[in-house]
Amino acid sequence: QDINAYNGEQPAEKLPFPIIADKDRELAVQLGMLDPDERDKDGLPLTARVVFIFGPDKKLKLSILYPATTGRNFDEILRVVDSLQLTAYKKVATPVDWKPGDSVMVVPTLPDEEAKKLFPKGVFTKDLPSGKKYLRYTPQP
C-alpha cells in the first residue's frame, strides 16, 4: 500500500507487478544488491536499487544497479524494454538516446541487398570522414 500511496494512487491490495520479500536480505546478498557506501542505522549496507531485465529466452539482457541514494529512471527502463523488444525480432540496433519512433540502425551483418528488401522505407548511411558507409539507418520498422 505504501508503494501505491507514494505514487499518488489509492492503496490497493495487489500490485500490478511482483515484489519479492527479502526481509533477511539473503537474496540481496546473493545477487550483489548491497550498496557498499550507504549503511542503515545498524551499520548494515543498504540494498541498492537494482533492475534486472530478462528476455523471453530467460537470459539476462540488462542489469542496472543504482546506489541506494539514487532513484531509478523509469523512462530509461521503458526505453530499454522497447529497444530489446524491437531488436529481438528485427535486424536492427538502437543508437544512443534512441526513443520509440526514431530511426534505427541496420545491423552490420545484414548485406545491403537484404537490407533493401527488409526495409522498404529505405536505408540511409551516415557520412563519415573515412568515407565508409557502415553506419546504416532506416525508419523504425
From TrEMBL:
Statement: the UniProt record of this protein carries the keyword Oxidoreductase: yes
Domain Peroxiredoxin C-terminal span(s) in chain numbering: 83-121
Entry keyword annotation includes Electron transport: no
One Pfam family this sequence matches: 1-cysPrx_C
InterPro entries: Peroxiredoxin_AhpC-typ, Peroxiredoxin_C, Thioredoxin-like_sf
Domain of life: Eukaryota
SUPFAM superfamilies to which the protein is assigned, alphabetical: Thioredoxin-like
UniProt GO cellular component terms: cytosol; mitochondrion
Keywords attached to this entry: Antioxidant, Oxidoreductase, Peroxidase
Entry's Gene Ontology BP terms: cell redox homeostasis
GO MF annotation list: peroxiredoxin activity
Annotated protein name in UniProt: PRDX6 protein
